[in-house]
């Protein structure tokens, strides 16, 4: 029996004084909403079944996990047909103004499977 | 960038009917559907909408007639701005219709609101509704499996224990070597001391010292023996600790690998579910979009133009003189609403006004026409079950619902001009039962049989003109 456990899907608020912010930017960013199925950072659900109306969307983060890293997991998809959407996810340190890219995806269309993946990045 | 421009080529084959052989205008009727994925071919009848409700960026229709051909081209520039929806401007449509059988050219502008567009306010509500209802993200997060941190921490801890055990073995080995060396030395010293003691004669002065040395050497040897035994025990204990740490490490590694494998399998399954959920959600969007009481409302104004110049004077029976043609054909306006209370049923209501003339011939007069109609259609025989439909590419992409539709259109047209009315008809009414076969967005057929009753100046009558219509579309660059 594998030693695994299910994580609660209840979105949690992350109010902290951390300088870190996760951003989702996409192009075209006006009038081209995204379905934000899920954004999870270090096990905390930042967004779930939400709509991103205007690019960029920002989510405040608490500090990085041990090892000075962020584990980011996401699932997003364009809402409207006929528009090829390019998207970028990054983490920004608002004190140092440094950013670290998490992932990018080009030419997403509505009927494609959602862009879903996860990765670990060092804190900027 | 490649852009698909659906170009609808609509052809109509009319079964011969002498009574309406030249009655071309009466066949321009409203659409049964506002969806660009379903036929835009109008239902035959007596009251014409100026511009059928095509929603494509560019569309064209060619309608062959017994006495000529009608070409209709329409453009909806708002389709270029897919990301912006303006309730009026996004549906602005320009339509040009030319008819070689009547030499009539009509230019029209339509404005309105299309709730069946995904980017419309209604479409936004529907998208929000399906996002929350299908909750693909919640399902994904609920299914998410994580590897417990304790498992991840156990492996390096076991490794550390193993490293410590290895160091302990190394230390114990060195201690053992030193103990062995000390023991060997002590044993040798003891043997020498014993030999010396044995060589002394009894009573000799060196005997006591030799014995003392021998006893001391015996003590040292015993101590070295003890140290050696202890070192051996320590080494054995360190080896046991190493073996135990190795077992713990292997178990931890296996547990971690199992957990990671389980997470991998779970993630793969969750991603598959997400894809299914997303696709189903897109299907649900069309289901909701096409099931409501928010109507599409389109208003259209247009004007008719006939060729200018001069032509034979109809008042001159000799045909020798010419008179000025009438290029101004008048204006038209209509308002239509389309309801789709359920996905398989739609209803169109429209009213129209036209102030026009019957042709561009000299001495024809402008007169008023009032018309209107109702078209009801029901998708009686779906070709796919709901489950199949939700997985259908055409449905997920555009909401196309294949099946056989039955419907009826009732239309009426009144003319106030008596002798200036088209074919002197002061009133016309028609009932048109029809059947649509919607095989795919590209291939659709319609069989209809308009039955027209009319009252003309000095006469009255009934016409029946069965029609068979084929609608097709091609994708162009």
Short précis:
The complex is a heterodimer of chains A (124) and B (477). Chain A has 124 residues and is mainly β.
Can you give a write-up of this model?
The complex is a heterodimer of chains A (124) and B (477). Chain A is 0% helix and 56% strand. Chain A has no helices and 9 strands. In chain A, the strands form 2 sheets. A 4-stranded antiparallel β-sheet of chain A has the order 5-2-7-8, with no helix packed on it. A 4-stranded antiparallel β-sheet of chain A has the order 4-3-6-9, with no helix packed on it. By secondary structure, chain B is of the alpha+beta class. The chains are: A mainly beta (124), B alpha+beta (477). Chain A binds chain B through residues 2-7, 9, 28, 30-33, 35-38, 40, 43, 45, 47-51, 73, 75, 77, 79-84, 110-111, 113-114, 116, 118, and chain B through 1, 82-85, 118-119, 124, 127-128, 131-132, 135-138, 140-148, 151, 255, 258-259, 261-263, 266-267, 271, 274-275, 278-279, 282, 393, 396-398.
């Amino acid at each position: 029996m594998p030693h695994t456990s299910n994580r609660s899907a209840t979105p949690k608020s992350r109010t902290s004084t951390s300088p870190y912010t996760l951003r989702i930017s996409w192009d075209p960013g006006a009038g081209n909403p995204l379905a934000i199925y899920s954004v999870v950072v270090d096990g905390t659900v930042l967004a779930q079944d939400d709509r991103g109306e205007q690019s960029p969307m920002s989510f405040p983060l608490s500090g990085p996990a041990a090892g000075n890293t962020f584990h980011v997991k996401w699932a997003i998809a364009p809402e409207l047909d006929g528009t090829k959407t390019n998207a970028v996810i990054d983490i920004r340190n608002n004190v140092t103004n440094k950013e670290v890219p998490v992932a990018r995806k080009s030419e997403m269309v509505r009927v494609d499977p959602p862009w879903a993946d996860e990765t670990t990045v060092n804190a900027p | 960038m490649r852009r698909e421009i659906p170009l609808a080529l609509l052809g109509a084959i009319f079964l011969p009917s002498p009574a309406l052989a030249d009655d071309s205008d009466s066949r321009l009727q409203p659409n049964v559907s506002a969806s660009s994925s379903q036929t835009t071919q109008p239902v035959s009848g007596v009251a014409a909408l100026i511009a059928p409700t095509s929603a494509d960026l560019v569309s064209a229709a060619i309608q062959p007639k017994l006495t000529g051909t009608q070409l209709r081209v329409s453009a909806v520039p708002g389709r270029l701005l897919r990301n912006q929806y303006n309730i009026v401007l996004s549906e602005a449509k320009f339509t040009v219709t030319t008819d070689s059988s009547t030499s009539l050219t009509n230019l029209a502008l339509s404005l309105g609101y299309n709730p069946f567009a995904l980017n419309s306010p209604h479409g936004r509500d529907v998208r929000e509704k399906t996002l929350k209802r299908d909750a693909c993200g919640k399902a994904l997060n609920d299914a998410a499996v994580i590897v417990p941190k304790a498992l991840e921490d156990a492996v390096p801890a076991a490794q550390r224990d193993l490293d410590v055990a290895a160091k302990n073995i190394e230390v114990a080995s060195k201690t053992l070597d030193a103990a062995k060396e000390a023991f060997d030395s002590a044993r040798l010293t003891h043997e020498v001391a014993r030999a010396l003691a044995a060589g002394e004669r009894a009573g000799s002065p060196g005997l006591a010292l030799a014995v003392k040395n021998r006893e001391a050497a015996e003590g040292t040897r015993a101590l070295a023996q003890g140290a050696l035994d202890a070192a051996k025990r320590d080494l054995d204990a360190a080896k046991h600790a190493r073996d135990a740490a190795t077992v713990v490490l292997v178990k931890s590694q296996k547990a971690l690998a199992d957990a990671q494998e389980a997470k991998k399998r779970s993630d793969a399954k969750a991603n598959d579910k997400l894809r299914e959920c997303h696709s189903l959600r897109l299907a649900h969007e069309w289901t909701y979009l096409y099931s409501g009481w928010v109507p599409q409302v389109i208003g259209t104004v247009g004007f008719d133009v006939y060729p200018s110049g001069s032509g034979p004077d109809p008042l001159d029976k000799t045909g020798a003189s010419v008179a000025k043609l009438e290029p101004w054909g008048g204006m038209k306006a209509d308002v239509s609403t389309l309801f789709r209370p359920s996905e398989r049923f739609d209803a169109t209501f429209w009213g129209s006004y036209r102030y026009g003339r019957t042709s561009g011939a000299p001495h024809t007069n402008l007169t008023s026409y009032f018309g209107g109609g109702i078209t009801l259609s029901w998708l009686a025989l779906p070709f796919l079950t709901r489950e199949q439909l939700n997985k259908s590419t055409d449905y997920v992409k555009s909401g196309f619902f294949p099946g056989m539709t039955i419907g009826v259109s009732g239309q009426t047209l009144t003319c106030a001009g008596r002798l200036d009315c088209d074919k002197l008809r002061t009133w016309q009414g028609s009932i048109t039962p029809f059947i649509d076969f919607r095989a795919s967005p590209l291939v659709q057929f319609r069989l209809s049989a308009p039955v027209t009753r009319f009252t003309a100046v000095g006469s009255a009558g009934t016409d029946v003109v069965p029609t068979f219509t084929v609608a097709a579309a091609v994708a162009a660059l």
